[in-house]
Design brief:
Elements: H1 15-22, H2 30-43, E1 48-58, E2 61-70, H3 77-83, H4 104-112, E3 113-121, E4 128-133, H5 134-138, E5 149-150, E6 165-173, H6 181-195, H7 197-201, E7 205-208, E8 211-212, E9 230-231, E10 236-241, E11 248-257, H8 260-263, H9 268-274, E12 282-286, E13 289-294, E14 310-316, H10 321-324, H11 337-368, H12 372-376, E15 401-407, E16 415-420, E17 423-429, H13 433-445, H14 447-467, H15 474-490
Parallel strand pairs: 1-7, 12-14, 15-17
Antiparallel strand pairs: 1-2, 2-6, 3-4, 3-6, 4-5, 7-8, 9-11, 10-11, 11-14, 12-13, 16-17
């Protein structure tokens, strides 16, 4: 045990053992740990946050370092020293923002790495540095937070630390979920995009190695048009009186219905990639930040596959923390029985209504849709290819329909085109990068641009089948026919 010079008694905390033990108090994953640092940046009024993942080779092994920088108000020496203490915080037990307990920075840091360095600069002040080193503490070399001193920022984060703000750097990372930087970036991005969606929508910018994170709404209310859900009823307000108190906390729940008719025709893989399959649950949002996504507060309602097609969000402020069972790591909810009694009845009732609506909608689709293939090729545009053997007539608009579907083709081609029963059928090859890297992401994120891309594909298909009727130079004829056809299709967009 490291002695305390100003105390004749025994310390409440065995410093050298505590820091080793607290490494196991645990965060679910790297994204949860990084989120604690992002929380601090948000509390510091940051508008831009950068997360950097650096991969190097050390002694023949892969070494990962992670940095989180922000343009917040920064910390002076005393505040910086306090921030690295376990339980140290200028906002301890505050109910006004995301943070509260003063455990997030040191606890999340040592849960992933053996070395934490913090650089911070206030408006007009010097950039100060201090650190926490697990090995030094374990050896008894480091018993206190080192006095912050002026220091230069490391070169690999210098381009995102130009003014006031704070930079948190983790090195000697020995407890990461993944070993490769590219995987770590993906895991952090997928979590950050949903966890901070409301703050991202409100204008806070978060970048991961220079790529901006876009909000991901599990309720699909902020989704692209192709996948956008509709609100189910108005938000439901709850005013819950705190036990043994005259104070009342305000909680709000809202529900959404996913566009079943538009998305049901997708394959299970596509629906899973989009976040439909396995997405049933309630998003719990505390102070604008998601703290959990779980099947809870829905009473006796069992989770079924039908429940993937509707969503619920429950929003509350930190003054309701005890009711929701929020701990210092903000990684989940454990609602009290008191809260369950106040909310579950109404939430369960809405959940059952939505489940019944989804059941009925699926039944209607089964009766109305002849086959999945026909549904996937349901576009009935009258921007039509000319009949085989006829010269291209770009202005023609009637006679043959075109349809687009998606299949795994046993070919390296982007698409296959054929005339079937008077319709031009374009089958995109789901095994080709064109589909996986361009068409499908565009269809989900920018439907209008995807429509233009489909026009280009339809024109190519028209040209391909038309060129078969021309002797001589099929390639030149194909290219000319494609250009003419695209002009006709594009004129209608």
């Amino acid at each position: 045990m490291c002695p305390l010079d100003d105390c004749s008694g025994r310390s409440l905390v065995a410093d050298c053992n505590f820091i080793l033990a607290t490494r196991d108090t645990g965060y679910r994953d790297i994204a949860s740990a990084v989120s604690e640092v992002v929380d601090n940046a948000v509390e510091a009024a940051a508008t831009t946050i950068h997360i950097l993942v650096r991969e190097e080779r050390a002694d023949g092994k892969r070494a990962i370092s992670i940095a989180v920088t922000d343009d917040g108000h920064g910390m002076a020496a005393e505040e910086l020293s306090t921030a690295l203490q376990f339980g140290g915080s200028t906002r301890f037990n505050s109910r006004r923002g995301i943070g509260r307990f003063g455990m997030g920075l040191p606890n999340s840091s040592v849960s992933q790495s053996r070395r934490l360095d913090v650089y911070s600069r206030t408006e007009g002040g010097p950039r100060l540095h201090t650190y926490l080193d697990v090995d030094e503490v374990a050896k008894g070399v480091l018993c206190y937070v080192p006095e912050p001193v002026p220091a230069e920022i490391p070169h690999w984060i210098a381009n995102v630390c130009r003014g006031h703000g704070t930079a948190v750097i983790w090195t000697r990372c020995d407890r990461l979920d993944f070993r490769k930087a590219i995987t770590i970036r993906k895991k952090i991005a997928s979590s950050i995009s949903r966890r901070y969606r409301h703050l991202l929508i409100d204008g806070i910018a978060i970048y991961i190695d220079g790529i901006r994170v876009h909000p991901l709404d599990p309720l699909f209310l902020d989704a692209p048009l192709q996948a956008r859900a509709t609100p189910f009823g108005d938000p439901i307000p709850f005013a819950v009186r705190l036990p043994d108190s005259d104070s009342t906390v305000h909680i709000e729940a809202r529900f959404s219905e996913l566009p079943l008719a538009r998305l049901a025709i997708l394959s299970n893989h596509e629906k899973r990639e989009l976040g439909v399959v396995g997405g049933a649950g309630v998003s719990f949002v505390r102070a604008g930040r998601e703290v959990d996504y779980a099947w809870t507060l829905l009473g006796a309602k069992r989770k079924e596959n039908y429940d993937d097609w509707w969503r619920c969000e429950v929003r509350f402020d930190p003054d309701a923390d005890e009711l929701f069972g929020i701990t210092h790591s903000k990684q989940g909810v454990n609602p009290s029985q008191y809260l369950r009694d106040a909310l579950e009845g109404e939430l369960e009732s809405v959940a059952r209504q939505l489940n019944n609506r989804v059941r009925a909608a699926f039944q209607g689709l089964r009766l109305a849709r002849p086959s999945r293939a026909e549904a996937a090729a349901s576009r009935a545009d009258v921007l039509l290819p000319v009949a085989l053997g006829s010269p291209p007539v770009p202005e023609r608009r009637d006679g043959i329909l075109y349809r687009i579907s998606y299949e795994l083709l046993d070919t390296t081609a982007i698409f296959d085109a054929s005339l079937v029963d008077g319709s031009l059928v374009v089958v995109l090859n789901k095994a080709h990068p064109f589909y996986t890297s361009l068409y499908w992401p565009l269809r989900m994120t920018a439907p209008k641009l995807a429509d233009r891309l489909e026009a280009l594909l339809a024109a190519a298909a028209r040209a391909a089948v038309t060129a078969k009727g021309y002797p001589g130079q099929p390639v030149n004829q194909f290219l000319e026919s494609w250009a003419d056809a695209f002009a006709a299709f594009a004129s209608e967009l």
